Amino acid sequence: MADPLHQFVIKPIVPLEIAGTDISFTNSSLFMVLAVVASTVFLLGGMARAKTVPGRWQSMVEMTYEFVANLLDENVGSKGKQYFPFVFCLFMFILVGNLLGMIPYSFTYTSHIIVTFGLAATVFIFATLVGFMRHGLNYFSLFFPEGAPVYMAPLIVPIEILSYLSRPVSLSIRLFANMMAGHTMLKVFAGFTIALGFFGIAPLFINVLLTAFEILVAVLQAYVFTILTCIYLHDAVHLH
Domain limits at 147? Predict the structure, then answer.
């Protein structure tokens, strides 16, 4: 049976090293570029001949736009509109990356913790900068909820700071773990199907169900990552 973890191995396509640092163009890099290209084609293609009565392609683009816009409006409010490009690009990059990984013999870059942590750290830094730009030093009041007893500060403040600093960790692990676990299970049951031959009908059926479930997870994880980003922006804009 093939190693189910072999699918996560990063392989250099164009080896390149500068000053002892490996900056090779890898299979992960390739699928990131493909995700950007696919997203661009999807969005620009759908709106290239925009009509008052939209067709199927235009409708999908508009639904995607409205979905993210509504998430931002519901969680951040009208003040969150200026952050729409950032949130929308993040959603599309994760969603398309997750879905591309469902294609046989492709590569799922969101199954690597370094990628998901990079995305989560970007969200964390962005939200923190927004908070300080809008509120200055008053942003530190986020770590002490309004109305809480002052004598509880020595207990509440460290807990709030720890919770705040754990955001990029929990955000990155959630996406990475779900994508890696799902693809590993698909590979394992696919191996059973091949190894059992004629008797592999049962694992084949399970694999079909897992594939459908994994597509749902791919969409759901993009949604979860995006809505948590909106929640963090809400805290940065409104404090409490």
Answer: 6-238
> pLDDT in tens for each of the 240 residues of the chain?
567 778 889 999 999 888 888 889 999 999 999 999 999 999 999 888 878 778 888 999 999 999 999 999 999 988 889 999 999 999 999 999 999 999 988 999 999 999 999 999 999 999 999 999 999 999 998 888 877 788 888 888 899 999 999 999 999 999 999 999 988 888 887 777 777 666 667 777 888 888 899 999 999 999 999 999 999 999 999 886
DSSP string, 84-110: HHHHHHHHHHHHHHHHHTTSTT---GG
Q: How far apart are CA 21 and CA 11, in angstroms?
A: 16
Residue 130 placed within a domain: yes
Provide the domain count of the chain: 1
Does any domain span residue 107? Answer: yes
Q: What is the pTM of this model?
A: 0.90
Residue 54 domain flag: yes
CB 102 within 8 A of CB 214: yes
Q: Indicate if the alpha-carbon torsion angle 216, 70, 40, 167 is positive or negative.
A: negative
Does residue 1 sit within a domain? no
